[in-house]
Write a structure and sequence with these properties.
By secondary structure, the protein is mainly α. It is about 80% helix and about 0% strand.
Length: about 180
């Protein structure tokens, strides 16, 4: 949309353009976040397959590292997705509503979809899936490493650090579950 003069620029147009950009970013982040889940499952499956094929249990410790990196990336994207929704609901929508003297909420979907029946249950299931993917699976790999006959003290120490980091990641998932 080309602007021919400054008279064509209004606060409402600027806010609508901001809304369009934010929704585009949100859509992109949602796609990326959701694909991270599939990629994590594929990566952990590959780690387990390579470990079984090679018989080298130390390879299992790459699964927690993968889950930590991708899990944190998942959380960061989820935080930005939620922040965009909150900004549109709490700042952008009300400001545009004031400018247009709208009767009712502007961008009503931003509020409506949060009050749909069953949302709380779906959010809890999603948290369970996230915890399974980013916490339980890597801990299963870590436990399998600990139970293997060929463990090395330095790797045990590293696995304890990974376990602590996974606990922090799990806490972050639980902390964000209701958003």
């Amino acid at each position: 949309m080309a602007v021919t003069s400054m008279d064509d620029v209004t606060e409402s147009k600027v806010l609508l353009a901001e809304y369009d950009r934010l929704k585009e970013e949100q859509k992109t982040r949602i796609g990326f976040r959701d694909n991270l889940l599939y990629f994590t499952l594929a990566a952990v499956t590959a780690v387990v397959a390579v470990t079984v094929h090679s018989g080298q249990s130390r390879l299992l410790l790459s699964a927690p590292a993968i889950c930590l990196i991708l899990g944190w990336t998942y959380l960061v994207n989820d935080e930005k997705i939620s922040a965009i929704g909150c900004y549109v609901r709490d700042r952008l929508g009300p400001r545009l509503g004031e400018l247009t003297s709208a009767h009712g909420a502007v961008f009503g979907w931003e509020v409506y979809h949060r009050n749909v029946a069953g949302r709380t249950v779906r959010k809890r299931f999603q948290t369970a899936v996230d915890l399974f993917t980013y916490l339980v699976l890597p801990m299963v790999c870590t436990t399998a490493f600990w139970c293997s006959p060929f463990i090395q003290p330095l790797l045990v120490f590293a696995s304890l650090g990974q376990t602590l980091a996974l606990a922090v990641l799990g806490w972050q998932f639980l902390r964000r579950k209701e958003r």
